[in-house]
Amino acid sequence: MESQTRTKIMASEPPLPREWRFVKCIAPFGDPLSVTPGYFYQVLPDPAEADGMLRVIDNTGEDYLYEAELFEEIADHVTLLTDLTVALNAPMKAAIFQLANQRGMSMGALVRQWIDERLDLPVQS
Length: 125
Fold this sequence. Notes:
Order of helices and strands: EEEEEEEHH
Number of strands: 7
Number of domains: 2
Oligomer: single chain
Number of helices: 2
CATH topology of the largest domain: SH3 type barrels
Distance between the termini: 46 Å
Radius of gyration: 19 Å
């Protein structure tokens, strides 16, 4: 059995800007190209809200109008914080270890840097 290392990265970000709104999809169905039940999505302001629609940035990264009844409003952004676990097999761990040593940093710092650079996380204002 191949050994694995798990690195846990805790997010301790400040609260998200007040103007940001998030919803959780509570639809009984899903589609990888639209919305997935249980996933969280950012809502953009739109006049169509008066007609029971929400403009949501969906799984495609684009914003589209969806029926508001498919979502549940998230009032407390703290519920969006989650743990991230990264599983590394032995060759991946060796490659990251070598790269971290070349840069004079720990493996954890290198992985955190990679996440910060490559994931589209909200920017602190």
